[in-house]
Write a structure and sequence with these properties.
The protein has seven helices and 22 strands. It is an alpha+beta fold.
């Protein structure tokens, strides 16, 4: 499934699932499957937390299957690439009891799949990025980096969704970071590495916006990154459940997904998620040691090799400016676009 948080015109945010070029409103369609569905709360965090028996990833899949069977053959193919566009010939909205269940993708506003994650950890797992960033500072990769997957906590209250403008922070060196993120779908503590994949609900694209001048000052005193990342993280455009990406997995769980970043339609970065030094299972095992991971926690992979201007310009820029449009595209996960304003 590809799950979204969306806002229909004049309405409040809702949880949905993509079906070709349309969004299925899970709350509106739930009566097709569940009795007393009007008492159920459908939002992304409730689905991940399995707050009610029916409200879960499995329940969402049942609702989507019911809608699919009703409209089978009536919908055109999903648009290729991007966040979707209207496909002429799509039938009118399907309703139940006068409540609309389907919305054309181009007629709704997508928020981040998790507008406010339970927490946000960002790791540092691509050796090429680490070695290049260190070389730019005249250093070698620390030996400790090869001993455990390091991470820092970022601001889970500063999340931006697809096509949402990102305000320019107080920096002279704004950068993007092309990352893959996983979302935790089960509560767990001291999780074993060989069981960790069972805790992943799905994946999405992540842009870890960075103020490089602020980051340099923080690192010089032995702290951070903190304020350098405090202002924005973009997530989206949708949460793709883990089962949909199994076809890209290798024997050790790494995902062979092409990762591309463009600035103003010009390709700047290209890499592959399979080049991660640490797997998401290793990250989950490390993050859960002596603490509990909860549904809705987000774990970022860190920047793929070449996936930021810091690497591409040896740390000297030019950097992002107001008006620049940053696009990130990852195999199977769609396209995440934001403009700096």
């Amino acid at each position: 499934m590809r799950l979204v948080t969306f806002v229909p015109p004049g309405e409040r945010p809702r949880a949905g699932a993509l079906l070709g070029p349309v969004v299925v409103d899970l709350a509106a369609a739930a009566p097709l499957v569940f009795e007393e569905a009007e008492t159920l709360r459908w939002d992304m965090l409730s689905i991940l937390c399995h707050d009610q028996e029916e409200v879960s990833l499995e329940g969402a899949a049942e609702v989507l299957a019911a809608v699919t069977s009703m409209v089978s053959g009536a919908l055109p193919d999903a648009p290729s690439g991007g966040n979707g566009s209207h496909n002429p010939g799509m039938p009118g909205s399907l309703s139940i009891g006068g409540v609309e269940m389907l919305f054309p993708l181009d007629q709704v506003r997508l928020l981040a799949p998790l507008p406010r994650p339970a927490s946000l950890r960002d790791f540092y797992t691509f050796e090429q990025h680490v070695s290049t960033a260190m070389a730019n500072r005249g250093r070698e990769v620390p030996a400790e980096w090869y001993r455990f997957p390091a991470f820092y906590f970022s601001n889970h209250g500063a999340i931006y969704g697809p096509d949402e403008p990102v305000p320019m922070p107080q920096t002279e060196s704004l950068d993007f970071e092309l990352e893959l993120a996983c979302v935790i779908g089960r509560e767990g503590r001291d999780i074993y590495e060989d069981e960790a994949a069972e805790y992943i609900a799905g994946y999405m694209i992540m842009n870890d916006w960075s103020a490089r001048d602020v980051q340099g000052r923080e690192i010089s005193i032995g702290l951070g990154p903190a304020k350098a990342k405090d202002f924005a993280t973009s997530l989206g455009p949708w949460l793709v459940t883990a089962d949909e990406l199994e076809i890209y997995a290798d024997d050790d769980g790494r995902l062979s997904l092409e990762m591309v970043a463009r600035v103003n339609s010009v390709e700047r970065s290209r890499g592959n998620a399979a080049s991660m030094y640490y797997t998401f299972s290793q990250m989950i095992a490390h993050a859960s040691r002596d603490t509990t991971l909860y549904p809705g926690d987000v774990l970022g992979s860190g920047t793929v090799g070449t996936g930021c201007l810091l690497e591409l310009t040896a740390g000297y820029g030019p950097w992002l400016e107001r008006g620049d449009v940053v696009e990130m595209e990852i195999t199977g996960l769609g396209l995440l676009r934001n403009q700096v304003v």
